[in-house]
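Morning F.,

Quick status update on the modeling queue. The single chain you submitted on Monday has been processed. Sequence for confirmation:
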Amino acid sequence: PLQLHQSLPPWLSKVLSLIEENPSISANDLAHIVSFSPTQLRRLFHQWLGASPQDYLMTRRMGKAYHLLETTDLTVSAIAQSL
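Structure tokens below.
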């Protein structure tokens, strides 16, 4: 991930880092943090990653949920609330 982040624009590196730190963050919050409109963030994010911020967030959340299900004894309900 570090090498990937080095070739990305700073705003996108920041967005991806924020998603990793807090998978429950919303796309609107991400847009606000990087000083973009939600529409602008969706458009540019899709250009760079081929997915909308919402789709990317959902994929990351599902990945984290799968990891937690495999590696912890947390209930599905507890994992869902945490993500």
